[in-house]
Amino acid sequence: MIQVWINGKEWQVPEGLTMIQAMWYTGHEVIHGIGCLGGVCGACAAVYRMPGNFRLFNALACQTLVKEGMAFSLIASYPTQRAHYDIEQIPDAKEGLFTLYPESATCRNCNACTEVCPQGIDVRTSVWQAAFGDFKGVAETTMSCVMCGLCVSRCIAEMAPHEIALYARRAYASRELAFPENLRQRMDSVASGAYDKELERLSRLSPDQLKLECGVK
Ligand code: SF4
Ligand code: SF4
Ligand code: FES
């Protein structure tokens, strides 16, 4: 067993658990701030400190094992200003960025967003790429973003770098990339009702039958 602090309270938990498993083990109800459990959805942003170290570390709670003396909390959601738009309807993508996210031109180069990113993304560079209209560059720089929102929590210019990057990726994809043929085929299949029967069958299964169907014990 090891000693950890969860939301400021001391607990003993078995070694080898992830942060989220340690929360379950100690009876915390983790409903918000959890999704894929596979390091993909970005729902489980967390902050932690280790004994004798002043640094505040960041992590995805489903991917990070607890350690002796660790003190951590989940940051299940960080308020973000998210613009609503139809990317196809924006005539000039670069102008559109400054209309929807005027703060994207105010980066102060502190690099805190890069240092906080649990995916190791050079977030500061992506913000500058967006401001200069290099949306392809943004797409390449932020390819592994999981939208956890931790960069928002640190930005002294009060911007949401991950939302700016999402806008840039959409602008790049809609203007410069061909629509993926396999996706078009799958959308056509869905629209033609090819999966309706199977969906209907699944929707009638009980929770236990669904577990069997998914191979969950
Ligand atoms: S860029 Fe921001 S939202 Fe994306 S993974 Fe990094 S910290 Fe999370
Ligand atoms: S945290 Fe904000 S101000 Fe600092 S480098 Fe990143 S985007 Fe710029
Ligand atoms: S629960 Fe999806 S990344 Fe952790």
Give the distance, in angstroms, between the N- and C-terminal Cα atoms.
27 Å
Structural class: alpha+beta
In this entry the ligands are:
iron/sulfur cluster, FE2/S2 (inorganic) cluster
Order of helices and strands: EEHEEEHHHHHHHHH
> What is the mean predicted local confidence, pLDDT?
94
Shape: flat
How many DSSP H or I helices? 10
Strand content: 5-15%
The helical percent reads 25-40%
Question: Unreliable runs, pLDDT <50, ≥5 residues?
Answer: none
Query: How many domains?
Result: 3
Can you tell me about this structure?
The protein has 217 residues and is α+β, with helices and mostly antiparallel strands. It has three domains: 2-74, Roll (Ubiquitin-like (UB roll)); 87-176, no CATH class; 190-214, no CATH class. The protein has helices at residues 19-25, 93-100, 112-116, 123-131, 135-141, 150-154, 161-176, 181-191, 196-203, 207-214; strands at residues 2-6, 9-13, 45-49, 57-60, 71-74. It has a five-stranded mixed sheet, covered by helices on one side. A hairpin with a 7-residue loop joins strand 3 and strand 4. Helix 5 crosses helix 7. The two termini are 27 Å apart. The model has no long low-confidence stretch (mean pLDDT 94).
